[in-house]
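Input record (one chain):
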Amino acid sequence: MIVLTFCYKREIPFDENYYFNTHLPLLSKKTVLEMGATKYEVRKVLSSANGIPAPYSFIFNLYFESQEALDAFINDPRIPALQDDISNYYVGEQDIYMEEIVAEFAAANSDPV
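The corresponding structure, as predicted from the sequence alone:
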């Protein structure tokens, strides 16, 4: 599994209202699947484990089954419109990472207690 991660720096203003109500709807479930991703998630960073200020306010992850699927996403003709919209909610450079999941654990479905 390949993950494309966008990290929004805490010290740069981030318009949550625009992001959640305008930008994110551009990535509907249908659009994400058409563009090659299997899912996305948005995480709000609450704090760091050691108590120092966390460097990011939000982290956005897109998941892909393969590098080829990520490459198809990056080359999708809809990407420029998404990139052009960033300045409407964030005025700065995101930290962007391409990651590979090499191990994971998920709790098995269990009977309710």
